[in-house]
Amino acid sequence: CHSQGKASGELYVRIVVAARRALSLQSRDSVRLNDNMIAIGLGWDLLAGVSAVDLDASCVCFSQSGEVMMEESVYFAQLQSASRAIRHTGDEKEGDEDLGQGDDEIVLVNLGAVPAQVAALFFVATVATEGRSFCEVDTARMRLVEWKSGIERCRFNIAQQGKKHTALFMAR
Q: Are 86 and 109 in contact (CB under 8 A)?
């Protein structure tokens, strides 16, 4: 676009920043959600000199009678639920793909589309590398984010809680 004259004037910029601190989730804590679309992110960074450790994020669905509903659950080998309400973005095998900045695996959930027969959703982090545990990971965290607003509602520091475990529940 060519201008006939030179633009002049003043430009005023106003920026509003609202700092929000995510809850650091402890056992038996709860958090209220304002959005039907949520994301569970799993991120991890390896200890210096340690070979790759594969962590996996999963969402396991349960019926009212306590039975696992595999068709609605998602994990590294089943990336979408039958209802399409829950989706896994894919398996990351080494962590730290984003240089420690965020989530290596993400599970997206449209809570409004989850079938009525699903009574509970369990979000789980597991160590998929045989013979390894969370103690071989420098940092590991799962976080719950309201998808539309991007607000992180809670964070669970797995490496601090996990120690020699190979699986931990983040949220129900």
A: yes
Domain range list for the chain: 23-171
DSSP annotation string for 34-81: --SEEEEEEEEEEPTTPPP--EEEEEEEE-TTS-B-TTT-BBTTB-B-
Distance separating alpha carbons of residues 47 and 16, to the nearest angstrom: 38
CATH number attached to the domain at 23-171: 2.60.60.30
Q: pTM of the prediction?
A: 0.77
The C-alpha atoms of residue 100 and residue 80 are separated, in whole angstroms, by 26
Q: What is the pLDDT of residues 67-84, one digit of tens each?
A: 999 999 999 999 999 999
Q: What is the per-residue burial (b if ≥16 Cβ within 10 Å, else e) of 90-99?
A: ebbeebbeee
Among 72, 129, 134, 141, smallest CA distance to 101 is for 141
Tokens 């595999």, residue located: 70
What are the pLDDT digits (tens) for 133-166? 888 888 888 888 898 888 888 888 876 665 788 8
58 and 127 Cβ atoms separated by less than 8 Å? no
